[in-house]
Amino acid sequence: KQEVTQIPAALSVPEGENLVLNCSFTDSAIYNLQWFRQDPGKGLTSLLLIQSSQREQTSGRLNASLDKSSGRSTLYIAASQPGDSATYLCAPGYSTLTFGKGTMLLVSP
Amino acid sequence: GAVVSQHPSWVICKSGTSVKIECRSLDFQATTMFWYRQFPKQSLMLMATSNEGSKATYEQGVEKDKFLINHASLTLSTLTVTSAHPEDSSFYICSAGGGTGKNIQYFGAGTRLSVL
């Protein structure tokens, strides 16, 4: 059974900092890995999708890397902004997605 | 593209009543739909997977007689919480697979259920 751990559980930083969110998973037999953003009381917004054959994906200030063999992924957020405040979820996928508990990020002005 | 609509976004009901939640893929055919539940400050937990025209596959510990899933068409799946009780209060999110991306799920906005 896939288990996903996200570290840290919560993070509070001033605006402008570069951030690294970590995700580890126990079963490396995955098709892909997605990073999502969830605002309080809302659904999920897909941020990045990395296929199992890829090492990283970039979208704007976001960069996600995947080391499938070691069961790790990181989400790098450059020049953080208050609007980045949300919970970030990683989900490795095979036939289904398994979610971590997320990292709750607060970026203060 | 790949928009999934979930309705209602919020529902309050009395204990003992049944609640139906709809999940629609608006611009693609969803061969598979997934239903998740999320309790406060917890991760999303998969409840069941449904394929169009066949019975849903429920995860261990999810009561299939309580959480009825119907996937009658390639664009619509419904989750009915039967005889809801306060402990069923949660955030329910659906996702749809299919579209142009293999093994990619597109998520609805979620439904917050509060059972009084």
Descriptive overview:
The complex is a heterodimer of chains A (109) and B (116). Helix content of chain A is 0%, strand content 56%. Chain A is mainly beta. Chain A is globular, with a radius of gyration of 13 Å. The termini of chain A are far apart. Chain B is an all-beta fold and 116 residues long. In chain B, the strands form 2 sheets. In chain B, strands 2, 4, 5, 6, 9, 10 and 11 form a 7-stranded mixed sheet that branches. In chain B, strands 1-3-8-7 form a 4-stranded antiparallel sheet, with no helix packed on it. In chain B, a hairpin with a 6-residue loop joins strand 9 and strand 10. The interface between A and B is medium-sized, with 23 and 24 residues.
Distance between the termini of chain A: 41 Å
Poorly predicted runs of chain A are none
The share of residues in extended strands of chain B comes to over 45%
Helix/strand order of chain B = EEEEEEEEEEE
Helix count of chain A, per DSSP? 0
> What is the radius of gyration of chain A computed over CA atoms, rounded to a whole number of angstroms?
13 Å
Assign a percent range to the helix content of chain B: under 10%
Shape of chain B: globular
User: Element order, helices and strands of chain A?
Assistant: EEEEEEEEEE
Q: Within the largest sheet of chain A, what's the order of strands?
A: 1-3-8-7-6
The main β sheet of chain B shows up as: 7 strands, mixed
Which secondary-structure class do the elements of chain B indicate? mainly beta
Mean pLDDT of chain B: 90
Give the integer mean of the pLDDT values of chain A.
Answer: 94
Q: Approximately how much beta-strand content do the residues of chain A carry?
A: over 45%
Q: Structural class, judged by helices and strands of chain A?
A: mainly beta
Measured by residues with Cβ under 8 Å of the partner chain's Cβ, the largest interface is: A-B, 23 and 24 residues
- Number of DSSP strands of chain A? 10
